[in-house]
């Protein structure tokens, strides 16, 4: 089994802002600004009952803090759902921007909306999470904002909340409240992550070009119950445990025959402190020139001695 932990540096995009990861309105995740641009809502904000109609056009801005929202891809049909169901956004708090942007203030452009979200939603989300937001976890902060027309009519309230986005920025459905939940940035075993510009993308079918295939999940807490393990201890433990996970997943396939290698994520102290102790074991390959990741096609699941996924890289994978 060839291991290459150095590949892990390409797994997560660089999205940290201080101690809170922020996917800004109008930036990487355009879905929310598209939704709010075609969604009407009423003022002032008031709480919705648990039986509120799912097609209520005011739901995004009427729902109380702690509510979870979802919508079909490419639509503005926002529904309030129980947080135990799949959802795309969890409301953490409400902010009134009137004091900073009084009547007559021009509608913020994309750059200013990013700054508003960064300056305001990070603290709101952190408070909602009891100060326990994993800066490298699966959740990030964002905001639902009024449209230009609503702004000109006096609307100055934004809803800050939590969402999970893939490495390429597309929102990923989650279940359960982020508050008190596991924030480990992991994917279900068998997930393939896309590839774009030699970097990791959002989940795709394993039959198309992808960067990594998740072959196992390891909870380091089970091996280190007494506290955070240093990086060298994590590497040693994961070389064994991810190696076994990959062997079980592939039915003993020799990854080098497909010019592939095994790698994994590790956990940082600040993530461990808030309970994020699980990591991905994954299969992929670097390009020959080391400039990024090589496209891989097909899955390695259960292949044994059969035909497996193939990397376009011509060089053997580097050893760990």
Automatic annotation (TrEMBL):
The chain crosses the membrane at residues 21-43. It holds the Pfam family Septum_form. Residues 66-281 form the Septum formation-related domain. Coiled coil: none annotated. Residues 299-314 have a biased composition (Low complexity). Keywords: Membrane, Transmembrane, Transmembrane helix. Residues 292-320 are annotated as: Disordered. This is Putative regulator of septum formation.
């Amino acid at each position: 089994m060839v291991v290459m932990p150095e590949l892990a540096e390409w797994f997560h995009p660089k999205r940290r802002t201080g101690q809170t990861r922020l996917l800004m309105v109008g930036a990487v995740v355009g879905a929310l600004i598209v939704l709010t641009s075609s969604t009407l809502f009423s003022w002032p904000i008031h709480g919705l009952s648990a039986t509120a109609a799912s097609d209520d056009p005011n739901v995004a801005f009427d729902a109380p803090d702690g509510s979870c929202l979802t919508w079909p891809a490419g639509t503005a049909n926002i529904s309030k759902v129980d947080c135990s169901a799949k959802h795309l956004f969890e409301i953490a708090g409400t902010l009134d921007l009137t004091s900073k942007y009084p009547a007559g203030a021009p509608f913020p452009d994309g750059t200013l909306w990013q700054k508003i979200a960064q300056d305001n939603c990070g603290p709101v989300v952190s408070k909602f999470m009891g100060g326990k937001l994993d800066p490298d976890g699966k959740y990030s902060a964002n905001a639902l904002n009024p449209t230009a027309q609503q702004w000109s009519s006096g609307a100055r309230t934004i809803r800050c909340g939590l969402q999970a986005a893939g490495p390429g920025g597309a929102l990923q459905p989650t279940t359960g409240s982020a508050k008190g939940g596991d924030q480990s940035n992991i994917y279900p075993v068998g997930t393939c992550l896309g590839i774009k510009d030699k970097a990791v993308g959002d989940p795709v079918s394993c039959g198309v070009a992808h960067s990594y295939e998740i072959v196992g999940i390891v909870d380091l807490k089970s091996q280190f119950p007494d506290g955070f393990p240093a990086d060298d201890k994590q590497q040693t433990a994961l070389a064994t445990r991810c190696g076994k996970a990959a062997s079980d997943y592939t039915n003993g396939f020799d990854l080098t025959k497909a010019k592939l290698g095994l790698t994994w994520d590790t956990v940082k102290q600040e993530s461990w402190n808030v309970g994020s102790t699980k990591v991905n074991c994954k299969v992929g390959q670097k390009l020959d020139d080391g400039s990024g990741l090589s496209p891989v096609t097909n899955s390695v699941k259960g292949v044994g001695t059969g035909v497996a996924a193939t990397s376009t890289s011509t060089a053997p994978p580097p050893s760990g």
